[in-house]
Write a structure and sequence with these properties.
Blueprint: E1 3-8, E2 14-18, H1 21-30, E3 34-36, H2 56-68, H3 73-78, H4 83-103
């Protein structure tokens, strides 16, 4: 059940009470000197952490972006690669390392 805050207009006394919406409406109609006090609400803007997961639609969008930009860091993580592409990248990486070591 929700918690409601009330104020007595005559005494200026404020308190919280737990009741259903129907009970709260009935209580306010029977007691015209009592008013409900609006309080700040807690709103969760986002959830992150270990249990947070992207949905399949977002993964598909990342996959399409990585296909359009095959040399990007996003493509390394989300791109679909054939065996030929993987082997080609390994050979290129190997030759770059050799060239780098020769220049030193």
């Amino acid at each position: 059940m929700p918690s409601y805050s009330f104020i007595n207009i005559k005494t200026n006394k404020e308190w919280d009470d737990i009741m259903t919406i129907a009970e709260m409406e009935e209580y306010l109609s029977k007691n015209p000197h009592i008013r409900q006090v609006p309080k700040r609400m807690n709103i969760v803007a986002g959830v992150s952490g270990i249990t947070y997961k992207n949905d399949q639609g977002f993964k598909e969008v990342l996959s399409k972006i990585s296909e359009a930009h095959p040399q990007s860091a996003l493509a390394q993580q989300y791109g679909k690669k054939s065996i030929k592409q993987v082997k080609t990248e390994q050979v290129i990486k190997k030759h770059r390392a050799r060239q780098k070591s020769k220049t030193k």
